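**User:** Hello, beginner here. Are you able to go through the protein record under this note? It all follows right here:
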Amino acid sequence: MIRPAAAVSPGDVARHYDELDGFYRALWGEHLHHGYWETGDEAPGAAVRRLVELVAERARIGAGAAVCDVGCGYGGTARQLAAERDARVTGWTLSAAQHDFAVRHQDAGEARFVLGDWLENDLPPHSFDAVVAIESTEHMADKPRFFAEAARVLRPGGRLVVCAWLEAEGASRAARRWLLEPICAEGRLPSMGTAAEYSAMIRAAGLRLIAHEDITAHVRRTWRIGTRRVLAHLFRPASLRYLLDGGNANRIFTLTVPRIWIAYGLGVMRYGLFTAEATG
């Protein structure tokens, strides 16, 4: 498990997303996660929505299903699941800026949003048919507790689907020092695990691991596109003012975007999709 030199708190994560709110929405819109390319010809927006569809398929989300979206960001996934799957979705986010956007853009579908720390949730046991976490477990210091909470709130037979940034098994010391550790520090990730570590935590929580899929080849294009967008965005007056302001502690994230692209290209960072089931 990779950890940055300085500990990352939930408050650090919230400040990261609140401070970079305009930057993130300008670059990625309402979905702050990878796209999934099947043919390679899809537009970025279609690829992003396809990843949500893939998660919904693995989670077996159908009409009327109660779904918890942990780390819901701006609510794009929750709204898509409510509109296209007729699901009843509850989204959780640490970021006040994201929560405000999600609430303001609620549609007629059954999606609601909670501002708070998932690890401190007060949800009743066995209250959801599915729990999904698309690129949010990276921001949790206590990952075993995340899985334990997911197991607690899932109904017997309910499914957990997690999409996660992962350290490649056997990553070199140089890759860890120059790529993965800085990605954790700059992106406010308390830790980054391997596929084996995630699988072990799932089983330790009492969940049945159905599958781990390495879908890196289908998603890594995200960061080539992201790097190009960042470079174009940097020359806008608002962006320059932000980057030149020494008070903006999270401006270093502009370096993280190309760093992630390089890490994927070298194979030292992977992207995993985990599907698990509550056994009762």
Notes: The first strand starts at residue 66 and ends at 70. Residues 10-278 form a domain with the Rossmann fold fold (CATH 3.40.50.150).
